[in-house]
Amino acid sequence: MPEITRDEVAHLANLARIDLSDAELDHLAPQLSVILESVASISGVAGDDIPPTSHALPLTNVFREDVVTPSLTPEQALSGAPAVDEQRFSVPRILGEEA
Amino acid sequence: MSLIQRTAAELADALAAGETTSVELTQLHLDRIAAVDGVVHAFLHVDAEGALAQAAESDARRAAGALLSALDGVPIAVKDVLATEGLPTTCGSKILEGWIPPYDATVVARLRAAGLPILGKTNMDEFAMGSSTEHSAYGPTHNPWDLERIPGGSGGGSAAAVAAFEAPLAIGTDTGGSIRQPGAVTGTVGVKPTYGGVSRYGLVALANSLDQAGPVTRTVLDSALLHEVIGGHDPKDSTSIDQPLPDLVAAARLGATGDLSGVRVGVITELSGDGWQPGVMDRFQESVDLLVKAGAEVVEVSCPNFVHAMAAYYLILPAEASSNLAKFDAMRYGLRVWPEGKPDASAEEVMRASRDAGFGDEVKRRIILGTYALSSGYYDAFYGQAQKVRTLISRDFEAAFEKADVLVSPTAPTTAFKLGEKLDDPIAMYLNDLATIPANLAGVPGISVPSGLAEEDGLPAGFQILAPALADDRCYRVGAALEAALLAQWGGPLLDKAPALEGA
Lengths: 99, 504
Hints:
The complex is a heterodimer.
Chain A: H1 6-15, H2 22-39, H3 74-78, E1 84-85, E2 88-89
Antiparallel strand pairs in A: 1-2
Chain B: H1 8-16, H2 22-40, E1 43-46, H3 48-64, E2 76-79, H4 106-113, E3 118-122, H5 156-163, E4 169-173, H6 180-186, E5 189-192, E6 213-217, H7 220-230, H8 248-256, E7 264-268, H9 278-293, E8 297-301, H10 309-324, H11 347-358, H12 361-374, H13 380-403, E9 406-410, H14 426-430, H15 437-442, E10 446-453, E11 460-466, H16 472-490
Parallel strand pairs in B: 2-3, 2-4, 7-8, 7-9
Antiparallel strand pairs in B: 1-3, 4-6, 5-6, 5-10, 9-11, 10-11
Protein backbone atom coordinates (compact mmCIF):
# COMPACT_ATOMS: atom_id res chain seq x y z
CA MET A 1 0.00 0.00 0.00
CA PRO A 2 1.63 3.25 -1.08
CA GLU A 3 1.72 5.77 1.72
CA ILE A 4 0.87 9.25 0.59
CA THR A 5 3.66 11.72 1.31
CA ARG A 6 3.44 15.43 2.00
CA ASP A 7 5.04 16.08 -1.41
CA GLU A 8 2.46 13.91 -3.14
CA VAL A 9 -0.35 15.77 -1.43
CA ALA A 10 1.19 19.03 -2.60
CA HIS A 11 1.36 17.62 -6.14
CA LEU A 12 -2.25 16.42 -6.06
CA ALA A 13 -3.44 19.78 -4.68
CA ASN A 14 -1.59 21.38 -7.55
CA LEU A 15 -3.40 19.13 -10.05
CA ALA A 16 -6.70 19.99 -8.37
CA ARG A 17 -5.85 23.72 -8.52
CA ILE A 18 -5.98 24.35 -4.78
CA ASP A 19 -3.29 26.48 -3.09
CA LEU A 20 -2.59 24.66 0.14
CA SER A 21 -0.57 26.44 2.81
CA ASP A 22 2.22 24.63 4.66
CA ALA A 23 -0.01 24.35 7.69
CA GLU A 24 -2.77 22.76 5.61
CA LEU A 25 -0.33 20.28 4.08
CA ASP A 26 0.91 19.30 7.55
CA HIS A 27 -2.68 18.80 8.66
CA LEU A 28 -4.09 17.00 5.60
CA ALA A 29 -1.25 14.69 4.55
CA PRO A 30 -1.37 12.36 7.60
CA GLN A 31 -5.20 12.27 7.46
CA LEU A 32 -5.14 11.27 3.80
CA SER A 33 -2.68 8.50 4.59
CA VAL A 34 -5.06 7.11 7.20
CA ILE A 35 -8.02 7.28 4.80
CA LEU A 36 -6.05 5.56 2.03
CA GLU A 37 -4.96 2.86 4.44
CA SER A 38 -8.57 2.18 5.36
CA VAL A 39 -9.72 1.88 1.74
CA ALA A 40 -6.71 -0.20 0.68
CA SER A 41 -8.54 -3.35 1.78
CA ILE A 42 -10.42 -3.10 -1.48
CA SER A 43 -7.55 -4.21 -3.67
CA GLY A 44 -7.92 -7.85 -4.62
CA VAL A 45 -11.55 -8.12 -3.50
CA ALA A 46 -12.92 -8.51 -7.02
CA GLY A 47 -11.30 -10.66 -9.66
CA ASP A 48 -10.81 -9.95 -13.36
CA ASP A 49 -14.09 -11.69 -14.19
CA ILE A 50 -16.16 -9.07 -12.33
CA PRO A 51 -17.39 -6.28 -14.61
CA PRO A 52 -17.22 -2.73 -13.20
CA THR A 53 -20.41 -0.80 -12.43
CA SER A 54 -20.30 2.93 -13.10
CA HIS A 55 -24.00 3.53 -12.54
CA ALA A 56 -26.52 1.77 -10.33
CA LEU A 57 -29.10 1.36 -13.07
CA PRO A 58 -28.42 0.57 -16.72
CA LEU A 59 -28.20 3.80 -18.70
CA THR A 60 -28.69 4.56 -22.35
CA ASN A 61 -28.24 7.80 -24.20
CA VAL A 62 -31.23 10.05 -23.85
CA PHE A 63 -32.18 12.41 -26.64
CA ARG A 64 -34.81 15.08 -26.92
CA GLU A 65 -36.53 16.64 -29.89
CA ASP A 66 -34.27 19.18 -31.59
CA VAL A 67 -36.49 22.15 -30.85
CA VAL A 68 -35.83 25.45 -29.11
CA THR A 69 -36.95 25.51 -25.48
CA PRO A 70 -36.81 28.40 -23.01
CA SER A 71 -33.39 28.92 -21.45
CA LEU A 72 -31.53 31.50 -19.38
CA THR A 73 -31.30 35.04 -20.71
CA PRO A 74 -27.78 36.49 -20.99
CA GLU A 75 -28.55 38.64 -17.93
CA GLN A 76 -29.56 35.57 -15.91
CA ALA A 77 -26.53 33.60 -17.04
CA LEU A 78 -24.25 36.45 -16.00
CA SER A 79 -26.09 37.23 -12.77
CA GLY A 80 -23.67 35.33 -10.53
CA ALA A 81 -20.46 36.29 -12.30
CA PRO A 82 -17.64 37.81 -10.22
CA ALA A 83 -17.07 40.34 -13.02
CA VAL A 84 -18.91 41.17 -16.23
CA ASP A 85 -17.87 43.23 -19.23
CA GLU A 86 -20.02 43.93 -22.30
CA GLN A 87 -22.40 41.01 -21.63
CA ARG A 88 -19.48 38.62 -21.15
CA PHE A 89 -17.76 36.89 -18.23
CA SER A 90 -14.72 38.98 -17.37
CA VAL A 91 -11.80 36.81 -16.25
CA PRO A 92 -8.19 37.41 -15.16
CA ARG A 93 -5.54 37.14 -17.87
CA ILE A 94 -5.15 33.57 -19.07
CA LEU A 95 -1.68 33.86 -20.63
CA GLY A 96 1.65 34.25 -18.83
CA GLU A 97 3.59 37.52 -18.86
CA GLU A 98 6.05 36.16 -21.38
CA ALA A 99 3.33 35.58 -23.94
CA MET B 1 -51.77 19.91 20.40
CA SER B 2 -50.57 23.04 18.67
CA LEU B 3 -50.82 23.24 14.91
CA ILE B 4 -47.08 23.07 14.28
CA GLN B 5 -46.86 19.69 16.04
CA ARG B 6 -49.31 18.09 13.65
CA THR B 7 -48.27 15.97 10.71
CA ALA B 8 -48.34 17.39 7.20
CA ALA B 9 -51.28 15.11 6.36
CA GLU B 10 -53.17 16.51 9.37
CA LEU B 11 -52.30 20.06 8.36
CA ALA B 12 -53.65 19.40 4.87
CA ASP B 13 -56.87 18.18 6.51
CA ALA B 14 -57.00 21.24 8.77
CA LEU B 15 -56.63 23.49 5.72
CA ALA B 16 -59.36 21.57 3.90
CA ALA B 17 -61.67 21.85 6.92
CA GLY B 18 -61.13 25.61 7.11
CA GLU B 19 -59.65 25.21 10.57
CA THR B 20 -56.62 27.25 9.53
CA THR B 21 -55.14 29.02 6.53
CA SER B 22 -51.83 28.60 4.75
CA VAL B 23 -50.86 32.12 5.81
CA GLU B 24 -51.53 31.27 9.46
CA LEU B 25 -49.62 27.98 9.22
CA THR B 26 -46.71 29.59 7.48
CA GLN B 27 -46.58 32.42 10.02
CA LEU B 28 -46.68 29.92 12.91
CA HIS B 29 -43.67 28.11 11.46
CA LEU B 30 -41.82 31.37 10.84
CA ASP B 31 -42.53 32.30 14.48
CA ARG B 32 -41.20 28.95 15.61
CA ILE B 33 -38.06 29.45 13.52
CA ALA B 34 -37.60 32.90 15.09
CA ALA B 35 -38.03 31.38 18.55
CA VAL B 36 -35.76 28.33 18.35
CA ASP B 37 -33.44 28.56 15.36
CA GLY B 38 -31.01 30.70 17.31
CA VAL B 39 -30.07 27.54 19.23
CA VAL B 40 -30.86 24.87 16.61
CA HIS B 41 -29.41 26.63 13.54
CA ALA B 42 -31.26 24.45 11.06
CA PHE B 43 -31.65 27.29 8.54
CA LEU B 44 -29.07 29.13 6.47
CA HIS B 45 -31.70 31.41 4.96
CA VAL B 46 -35.31 32.14 5.88
CA ASP B 47 -37.60 33.63 3.25
CA ALA B 48 -40.46 34.98 5.38
CA GLU B 49 -41.74 37.37 2.75
CA GLY B 50 -41.69 34.85 -0.10
CA ALA B 51 -43.24 32.07 1.98
CA LEU B 52 -46.08 34.30 3.18
CA ALA B 53 -46.78 35.50 -0.37
CA GLN B 54 -46.89 31.89 -1.60
CA ALA B 55 -49.17 31.02 1.33
CA ALA B 56 -51.54 33.85 0.44
CA GLU B 57 -51.70 32.56 -3.11
CA SER B 58 -52.52 29.09 -1.77
CA ASP B 59 -55.35 30.51 0.34
CA ALA B 60 -56.69 32.32 -2.73
CA ARG B 61 -56.59 29.10 -4.74
CA ARG B 62 -58.44 27.30 -1.97
CA ALA B 63 -61.14 29.97 -1.95
CA ALA B 64 -61.46 29.58 -5.71
CA GLY B 65 -61.54 25.77 -5.50
CA ALA B 66 -58.41 25.43 -7.62
CA LEU B 67 -55.95 23.52 -5.44
CA LEU B 68 -52.71 22.28 -7.00
CA SER B 69 -52.06 19.20 -4.84
CA ALA B 70 -52.95 17.41 -1.60
CA LEU B 71 -50.20 19.41 0.14
CA ASP B 72 -51.16 22.82 -1.33
CA GLY B 73 -50.54 25.40 1.41
CA VAL B 74 -48.40 23.18 3.69
CA PRO B 75 -45.01 24.91 4.14
CA ILE B 76 -41.67 23.17 3.53
CA ALA B 77 -37.93 23.69 4.04
CA VAL B 78 -35.39 22.87 1.32
CA LYS B 79 -31.81 21.69 1.75
CA ASP B 80 -29.38 24.33 0.55
CA VAL B 81 -27.95 22.03 -2.14
CA LEU B 82 -30.97 22.52 -4.42
CA ALA B 83 -31.05 25.55 -6.69
CA THR B 84 -33.84 27.98 -5.81
CA GLU B 85 -34.48 30.88 -8.16
CA GLY B 86 -34.22 34.14 -6.23
CA LEU B 87 -33.09 32.48 -2.97
CA PRO B 88 -29.45 32.09 -1.90
CA THR B 89 -28.02 28.61 -2.51
CA THR B 90 -24.68 28.01 -0.80
CA CYS B 91 -24.35 24.23 -0.37
CA GLY B 92 -22.92 25.11 3.04
CA SER B 93 -19.81 26.48 1.31
CA LYS B 94 -18.03 29.84 1.36
CA ILE B 95 -17.33 29.41 -2.34
CA LEU B 96 -21.05 29.93 -3.06
CA GLU B 97 -21.74 32.54 -0.38
CA GLY B 98 -24.41 34.90 -1.66
CA TRP B 99 -25.01 33.01 -4.90
CA ILE B 100 -28.59 33.37 -6.11
CA PRO B 101 -29.39 30.81 -8.80
CA PRO B 102 -31.20 32.05 -11.91
CA TYR B 103 -33.29 28.86 -12.06
CA ASP B 104 -35.12 26.31 -9.91
CA ALA B 105 -34.12 22.69 -9.44
CA THR B 106 -36.86 20.39 -10.74
CA VAL B 107 -37.65 19.30 -7.18
CA VAL B 108 -38.13 22.95 -6.20
CA ALA B 109 -40.17 23.69 -9.34
CA ARG B 110 -42.44 20.77 -8.43
CA LEU B 111 -42.88 22.04 -4.86
CA ARG B 112 -43.89 25.41 -6.25
CA ALA B 113 -46.19 23.80 -8.81
CA ALA B 114 -47.83 21.83 -5.98
CA GLY B 115 -48.38 25.00 -3.95
CA LEU B 116 -46.04 24.40 -0.99
CA PRO B 117 -44.73 27.68 0.48
CA ILE B 118 -40.91 27.49 0.83
CA LEU B 119 -39.84 28.63 4.31
CA GLY B 120 -36.13 28.72 3.55
CA LYS B 121 -32.94 26.78 2.97
CA THR B 122 -31.49 24.33 5.47
CA ASN B 123 -27.96 23.83 6.74
CA MET B 124 -25.72 21.01 5.57
CA ASP B 125 -22.16 19.76 5.50
CA GLU B 126 -20.27 21.61 2.78
CA PHE B 127 -21.31 20.13 -0.60
CA ALA B 128 -23.00 17.33 1.40
CA MET B 129 -19.67 15.91 2.57
CA GLY B 130 -20.18 14.76 6.12
CA SER B 131 -22.35 13.05 8.69
CA SER B 132 -22.75 15.80 11.28
CA THR B 133 -23.25 19.24 9.57
CA GLU B 134 -20.05 20.28 11.32
CA HIS B 135 -18.46 20.72 7.92
CA SER B 136 -20.86 23.56 7.09
CA ALA B 137 -18.94 26.77 6.50
CA TYR B 138 -21.70 28.56 8.41
CA GLY B 139 -21.48 26.61 11.67
CA PRO B 140 -23.11 23.36 12.74
CA THR B 141 -26.77 22.56 13.29
CA HIS B 142 -27.64 21.34 16.78
CA ASN B 143 -29.71 18.24 17.51
CA PRO B 144 -33.06 19.30 19.05
CA TRP B 145 -32.84 16.27 21.41
CA ASP B 146 -29.59 17.56 22.90
CA LEU B 147 -28.14 20.80 21.62
CA GLU B 148 -24.60 19.62 22.42
CA ARG B 149 -24.96 16.83 19.89
CA ILE B 150 -24.85 16.46 16.10
CA PRO B 151 -28.09 16.26 14.10
CA GLY B 152 -26.50 13.90 11.60
CA GLY B 153 -25.42 14.89 8.15
CA SER B 154 -25.13 15.98 5.60
CA GLY B 155 -28.81 16.93 5.81
CA GLY B 156 -28.79 17.73 9.53
CA GLY B 157 -30.51 21.05 8.89
CA SER B 158 -33.54 19.50 7.22
CA ALA B 159 -33.86 16.76 9.87
CA ALA B 160 -33.44 19.19 12.77
CA ALA B 161 -35.94 21.64 11.23
CA VAL B 162 -38.57 18.91 11.10
CA ALA B 163 -37.66 17.50 14.56
CA ALA B 164 -37.82 20.99 16.12
CA PHE B 165 -41.23 21.72 14.52
CA GLU B 166 -39.71 24.55 12.48
CA ALA B 167 -41.17 22.93 9.35
CA PRO B 168 -43.65 20.08 8.87
CA LEU B 169 -41.78 18.87 5.79
CA ALA B 170 -38.32 19.21 4.31
CA ILE B 171 -36.28 18.07 1.33
CA GLY B 172 -32.98 16.28 1.80
CA THR B 173 -30.44 14.60 -0.46
CA ASP B 174 -28.80 11.25 0.18
CA THR B 175 -25.47 10.24 -1.38
CA GLY B 176 -24.36 7.76 1.30
CA GLY B 177 -26.98 8.26 4.01
CA SER B 178 -27.45 12.03 4.25
CA ILE B 179 -31.24 11.73 4.53
CA ARG B 180 -31.51 8.49 6.51
CA GLN B 181 -28.76 8.95 9.12
CA PRO B 182 -29.97 12.45 10.19
CA GLY B 183 -33.46 10.95 10.35
CA ALA B 184 -32.19 8.23 12.69
CA VAL B 185 -30.37 10.54 15.11
CA THR B 186 -33.17 13.14 15.28
CA GLY B 187 -36.12 10.74 15.63
CA THR B 188 -37.60 11.64 12.26
CA VAL B 189 -38.41 9.84 9.00
CA GLY B 190 -36.20 10.08 5.92
CA VAL B 191 -36.44 8.42 2.53
CA LYS B 192 -33.82 7.85 -0.14
CA PRO B 193 -35.82 6.97 -3.26
CA THR B 194 -34.64 4.59 -5.97
CA TYR B 195 -31.78 6.21 -7.91
CA GLY B 196 -33.42 8.11 -10.77
CA GLY B 197 -36.79 8.24 -9.00
CA VAL B 198 -36.48 11.93 -8.17
CA SER B 199 -34.89 14.38 -10.61
CA ARG B 200 -31.34 15.57 -9.93
CA TYR B 201 -31.70 18.61 -12.23
CA GLY B 202 -30.61 21.63 -10.19
CA LEU B 203 -29.22 19.49 -7.38
CA VAL B 204 -25.60 20.61 -7.01
CA ALA B 205 -23.87 17.29 -7.63
CA LEU B 206 -21.64 15.67 -5.03
CA ALA B 207 -21.41 12.25 -6.73
CA ASN B 208 -23.73 11.95 -9.72
CA SER B 209 -24.05 8.20 -9.67
CA LEU B 210 -25.04 8.15 -5.97
CA ASP B 211 -26.98 11.39 -5.27
CA GLN B 212 -30.72 11.22 -4.74
CA ALA B 213 -33.13 13.81 -3.30
CA GLY B 214 -35.97 12.68 -1.07
CA PRO B 215 -38.45 13.48 1.72
CA VAL B 216 -37.59 14.44 5.32
CA THR B 217 -40.68 14.31 7.55
CA ARG B 218 -42.06 13.23 10.93
CA THR B 219 -44.25 10.39 9.63
CA VAL B 220 -44.11 7.73 6.93
CA LEU B 221 -47.35 8.91 5.32
CA ASP B 222 -46.01 12.47 5.09
CA SER B 223 -42.93 11.15 3.26
CA ALA B 224 -45.14 9.26 0.82
CA LEU B 225 -47.24 12.38 0.14
CA LEU B 226 -44.11 14.47 -0.44
CA HIS B 227 -42.39 11.79 -2.51
CA GLU B 228 -45.37 11.76 -4.90
CA VAL B 229 -45.05 15.55 -5.30
CA ILE B 230 -41.33 15.57 -6.14
CA GLY B 231 -40.89 12.19 -7.85
CA GLY B 232 -41.36 10.92 -11.38
CA HIS B 233 -39.73 11.35 -14.75
CA ASP B 234 -37.95 14.60 -15.64
CA PRO B 235 -36.72 15.10 -19.20
CA LYS B 236 -34.09 17.52 -17.84
CA ASP B 237 -32.29 14.66 -16.01
CA SER B 238 -30.95 11.99 -18.36
CA THR B 239 -30.71 9.52 -15.46
CA SER B 240 -34.34 10.03 -14.48
CA ILE B 241 -36.46 6.86 -14.66
CA ASP B 242 -39.02 7.11 -17.44
CA GLN B 243 -41.89 5.29 -15.78
CA PRO B 244 -44.56 6.18 -13.23
CA LEU B 245 -43.90 5.95 -9.47
CA PRO B 246 -45.58 3.13 -7.57
CA ASP B 247 -48.60 4.23 -5.50
CA LEU B 248 -46.63 5.29 -2.43
CA VAL B 249 -49.44 6.90 -0.42
CA ALA B 250 -51.60 3.80 -0.85
CA ALA B 251 -48.66 1.66 0.31
CA ALA B 252 -48.23 3.81 3.43
CA ARG B 253 -51.95 3.62 4.20
CA LEU B 254 -51.94 -0.15 3.66
CA GLY B 255 -48.97 -0.52 5.99
CA ALA B 256 -50.64 1.60 8.66
CA THR B 257 -53.40 -1.00 8.95
CA GLY B 258 -50.71 -3.09 10.66
CA ASP B 259 -50.99 -6.27 8.59
CA LEU B 260 -47.74 -7.59 7.09
CA SER B 261 -48.94 -11.12 6.37
CA GLY B 262 -46.92 -12.69 3.59
CA VAL B 263 -44.15 -10.07 3.70
CA ARG B 264 -40.65 -11.53 3.96
CA VAL B 265 -38.22 -9.38 5.96
CA GLY B 266 -34.48 -10.07 5.68
CA VAL B 267 -32.17 -9.07 8.53
CA ILE B 268 -28.72 -8.29 7.12
CA THR B 269 -26.14 -10.30 9.06
CA GLU B 270 -23.22 -8.01 8.26
CA LEU B 271 -24.88 -4.88 9.68
CA SER B 272 -24.56 -5.71 13.36
CA GLY B 273 -21.89 -6.81 15.80
CA ASP B 274 -18.82 -4.97 17.09
CA GLY B 275 -19.11 -1.20 17.06
CA TRP B 276 -22.91 -1.23 17.14
CA GLN B 277 -24.28 0.53 20.21
CA PRO B 278 -26.21 -1.93 22.42
CA GLY B 279 -29.16 0.42 22.90
CA VAL B 280 -29.47 0.87 19.12
CA MET B 281 -29.41 -2.93 18.65
CA ASP B 282 -32.06 -3.40 21.38
CA ARG B 283 -34.43 -0.98 19.62
CA PHE B 284 -33.69 -2.73 16.32
CA GLN B 285 -34.51 -6.18 17.70
CA GLU B 286 -37.68 -4.84 19.30
CA SER B 287 -38.77 -3.46 15.91
CA VAL B 288 -38.04 -6.75 14.18
CA ASP B 289 -40.20 -8.48 16.81
CA LEU B 290 -43.02 -6.03 16.10
CA LEU B 291 -42.82 -6.83 12.38
CA VAL B 292 -43.14 -10.53 13.23
CA LYS B 293 -46.15 -9.72 15.39
CA ALA B 294 -47.67 -7.92 12.39
CA GLY B 295 -47.42 -11.12 10.39
CA ALA B 296 -44.10 -10.72 8.61
CA GLU B 297 -41.79 -13.66 8.11
CA VAL B 298 -38.24 -12.84 9.21
CA VAL B 299 -35.18 -14.47 7.69
CA GLU B 300 -31.50 -13.77 8.13
CA VAL B 301 -29.66 -12.89 4.94
CA SER B 302 -25.96 -12.47 4.33
CA CYS B 303 -24.54 -9.75 2.09
CA PRO B 304 -20.87 -10.67 2.34
CA ASN B 305 -19.56 -7.83 0.18
CA PHE B 306 -21.17 -5.10 2.29
CA VAL B 307 -18.00 -5.08 4.40
CA HIS B 308 -16.25 -3.54 1.38
CA ALA B 309 -18.96 -0.95 0.73
CA MET B 310 -17.34 1.82 2.73
CA ALA B 311 -13.97 1.45 1.02
CA ALA B 312 -15.62 1.41 -2.42
CA TYR B 313 -17.71 4.44 -1.50
CA TYR B 314 -14.73 6.48 -0.31
CA LEU B 315 -13.04 5.91 -3.65
CA ILE B 316 -16.03 6.39 -5.96
CA LEU B 317 -17.42 9.41 -4.15
CA PRO B 318 -14.19 11.46 -4.01
CA ALA B 319 -13.46 10.56 -7.64
CA GLU B 320 -16.82 11.88 -8.79
CA ALA B 321 -16.70 14.82 -6.36
CA SER B 322 -13.24 15.99 -7.43
CA SER B 323 -14.48 16.09 -11.00
CA ASN B 324 -17.80 17.77 -10.14
CA LEU B 325 -16.22 20.47 -7.99
CA ALA B 326 -13.82 21.44 -10.78
CA LYS B 327 -16.59 23.76 -11.95
CA PHE B 328 -15.93 26.07 -9.02
CA ASP B 329 -13.19 27.92 -10.85
CA ALA B 330 -13.93 31.54 -9.85
CA MET B 331 -14.83 32.48 -13.42
CA ARG B 332 -18.59 32.29 -14.01
CA TYR B 333 -20.09 32.33 -10.54
CA GLY B 334 -19.08 31.93 -6.93
CA LEU B 335 -16.17 33.32 -4.96
CA ARG B 336 -13.23 35.02 -6.71
CA VAL B 337 -10.17 35.65 -4.56
CA TRP B 338 -6.98 37.31 -5.81
CA PRO B 339 -3.72 35.97 -4.41
CA GLU B 340 -2.30 38.42 -1.91
CA GLY B 341 -0.10 41.09 -3.43
CA LYS B 342 -0.67 39.93 -7.00
CA PRO B 343 -3.08 42.30 -8.71
CA ASP B 344 -1.96 40.96 -12.11
CA ALA B 345 -2.46 37.30 -11.19
CA SER B 346 -3.41 34.86 -13.95
CA ALA B 347 -6.74 33.07 -14.16
CA GLU B 348 -5.09 29.92 -12.87
CA GLU B 349 -3.55 31.70 -9.87
CA VAL B 350 -6.90 33.26 -9.06
CA MET B 351 -8.52 29.84 -9.39
CA ARG B 352 -6.05 28.29 -6.93
CA ALA B 353 -6.43 31.07 -4.39
CA SER B 354 -10.22 31.04 -4.70
CA ARG B 355 -10.50 27.28 -4.23
CA ASP B 356 -8.17 27.41 -1.22
CA ALA B 357 -10.18 30.21 0.39
CA GLY B 358 -13.60 28.88 -0.63
CA PHE B 359 -13.38 25.17 0.23
CA GLY B 360 -13.24 23.75 3.76
CA ASP B 361 -11.03 20.93 5.07
CA GLU B 362 -13.32 18.02 4.28
CA VAL B 363 -13.89 19.20 0.71
CA LYS B 364 -10.15 19.57 0.19
CA ARG B 365 -9.55 16.10 1.66
CA ARG B 366 -12.02 14.51 -0.72
CA ILE B 367 -10.92 16.43 -3.81
CA ILE B 368 -7.32 15.36 -3.20
CA LEU B 369 -8.36 11.78 -2.47
CA GLY B 370 -10.42 11.68 -5.67
CA THR B 371 -7.60 13.17 -7.70
CA TYR B 372 -5.33 10.46 -6.29
CA ALA B 373 -7.79 7.63 -6.97
CA LEU B 374 -8.17 8.73 -10.58
CA SER B 375 -4.49 9.30 -11.29
CA SER B 376 -2.71 6.92 -13.65
CA GLY B 377 -0.91 4.14 -11.85
CA TYR B 378 -3.55 3.99 -9.12
CA TYR B 379 -6.70 3.97 -11.23
CA ASP B 380 -6.97 0.17 -11.60
CA ALA B 381 -6.02 -0.58 -8.01
CA PHE B 382 -8.49 1.88 -6.53
CA TYR B 383 -11.22 3.33 -8.73
CA GLY B 384 -11.40 0.26 -10.98
CA GLN B 385 -11.60 -2.07 -7.99
CA ALA B 386 -14.23 0.11 -6.35
CA GLN B 387 -16.41 -0.12 -9.44
CA LYS B 388 -16.10 -3.90 -9.41
CA VAL B 389 -17.01 -4.03 -5.74
CA ARG B 390 -20.06 -2.03 -6.67
CA THR B 391 -21.06 -4.90 -8.95
CA LEU B 392 -20.54 -7.38 -6.11
CA ILE B 393 -22.71 -5.31 -3.78
CA SER B 394 -25.50 -5.14 -6.36
CA ARG B 395 -25.26 -8.91 -6.72
CA ASP B 396 -25.51 -9.30 -2.94
CA PHE B 397 -28.71 -7.27 -3.04
CA GLU B 398 -30.11 -9.35 -5.92
CA ALA B 399 -29.45 -12.58 -4.05
CA ALA B 400 -30.89 -11.18 -0.81
CA PHE B 401 -34.05 -9.94 -2.52
CA GLU B 402 -34.69 -13.48 -3.75
CA LYS B 403 -35.06 -14.51 -0.12
CA ALA B 404 -36.77 -11.40 1.22
CA ASP B 405 -39.10 -8.64 0.00
CA VAL B 406 -37.32 -6.00 2.11
CA LEU B 407 -34.01 -5.92 3.97
CA VAL B 408 -33.61 -4.31 7.38
CA SER B 409 -30.84 -3.00 9.64
CA PRO B 410 -30.31 -0.23 12.14
CA THR B 411 -29.91 3.00 10.15
CA ALA B 412 -26.77 4.13 11.95
CA PRO B 413 -24.49 2.25 14.36
CA THR B 414 -24.84 4.77 17.18
CA THR B 415 -27.07 7.54 18.46
CA ALA B 416 -26.04 11.19 18.03
CA PHE B 417 -22.51 11.89 19.22
CA LYS B 418 -21.19 15.14 20.72
CA LEU B 419 -20.37 18.05 18.44
CA GLY B 420 -16.62 18.12 17.84
CA GLU B 421 -16.08 14.52 18.92
CA LYS B 422 -15.20 13.16 15.47
CA LEU B 423 -14.52 16.37 13.57
CA ASP B 424 -10.82 15.74 13.01
CA ASP B 425 -11.05 11.96 12.70
CA PRO B 426 -12.37 11.36 9.17
CA ILE B 427 -12.54 7.56 9.50
CA ALA B 428 -14.61 7.69 12.70
CA MET B 429 -16.93 10.13 10.94
CA TYR B 430 -17.21 7.94 7.82
CA LEU B 431 -18.26 4.90 9.88
CA ASN B 432 -21.62 6.52 10.63
CA ASP B 433 -22.74 5.66 7.13
CA LEU B 434 -21.79 2.00 7.25
CA ALA B 435 -25.37 0.77 6.96
CA THR B 436 -26.68 3.37 4.55
CA ILE B 437 -23.94 3.36 1.87
CA PRO B 438 -24.76 0.00 0.20
CA ALA B 439 -28.16 1.29 -0.98
CA ASN B 440 -26.52 4.24 -2.77
CA LEU B 441 -23.95 2.03 -4.45
CA ALA B 442 -26.71 -0.27 -5.76
CA GLY B 443 -29.31 2.46 -6.39
CA VAL B 444 -32.00 0.80 -4.28
CA PRO B 445 -34.49 2.76 -2.13
CA GLY B 446 -34.37 2.99 1.66
CA ILE B 447 -36.29 4.56 4.52
CA SER B 448 -35.31 5.32 8.11
CA VAL B 449 -38.09 5.18 10.68
CA PRO B 450 -37.59 6.11 14.37
CA SER B 451 -37.27 2.90 16.43
CA GLY B 452 -37.23 4.49 19.88
CA LEU B 453 -34.67 5.74 22.37
CA ALA B 454 -31.46 3.91 23.22
CA GLU B 455 -31.44 2.91 26.88
CA GLU B 456 -27.97 4.16 27.73
CA ASP B 457 -28.37 7.77 26.54
CA GLY B 458 -32.09 8.35 25.89
CA LEU B 459 -31.37 9.42 22.31
CA PRO B 460 -33.26 8.33 19.16
CA ALA B 461 -32.26 5.37 17.03
CA GLY B 462 -33.40 4.54 13.49
CA PHE B 463 -34.66 1.43 11.70
CA GLN B 464 -33.70 1.13 8.04
CA ILE B 465 -35.83 -0.69 5.45
CA LEU B 466 -34.38 -1.32 1.98
CA ALA B 467 -36.28 -2.53 -1.09
CA PRO B 468 -35.38 -3.49 -4.67
CA ALA B 469 -34.99 -0.71 -7.24
CA LEU B 470 -38.37 0.76 -8.27
CA ALA B 471 -40.15 -0.94 -5.33
CA ASP B 472 -40.12 2.16 -3.09
CA ASP B 473 -43.71 1.29 -2.13
CA ARG B 474 -42.39 -1.63 -0.04
CA CYS B 475 -40.35 0.78 2.13
CA TYR B 476 -43.55 2.75 2.79
CA ARG B 477 -45.70 -0.28 3.53
CA VAL B 478 -43.30 -1.87 6.01
CA GLY B 479 -42.24 1.52 7.42
CA ALA B 480 -45.83 2.54 8.10
CA ALA B 481 -46.61 -0.82 9.72
CA LEU B 482 -43.63 -0.47 12.07
CA GLU B 483 -44.51 3.14 12.82
CA ALA B 484 -48.09 2.19 13.70
CA ALA B 485 -46.94 -0.62 16.02
CA LEU B 486 -44.40 1.61 17.77
CA LEU B 487 -46.85 4.52 18.15
CA ALA B 488 -49.29 2.14 19.84
CA GLN B 489 -46.51 1.02 22.18
CA TRP B 490 -45.30 4.55 22.99
CA GLY B 491 -48.79 6.04 23.21
CA GLY B 492 -47.79 8.91 20.91
CA PRO B 493 -45.04 10.18 18.59
CA LEU B 494 -41.43 9.72 19.70
CA LEU B 495 -40.84 13.47 19.41
CA ASP B 496 -43.24 13.99 22.34
CA LYS B 497 -40.35 12.75 24.47
CA ALA B 498 -37.90 15.36 23.14
CA PRO B 499 -37.04 18.19 25.54
CA ALA B 500 -38.77 21.54 25.01
CA LEU B 501 -36.52 24.08 23.35
CA GLU B 502 -35.91 27.46 24.95
CA GLY B 503 -38.12 30.20 23.63
CA ALA B 504 -40.83 27.66 22.80
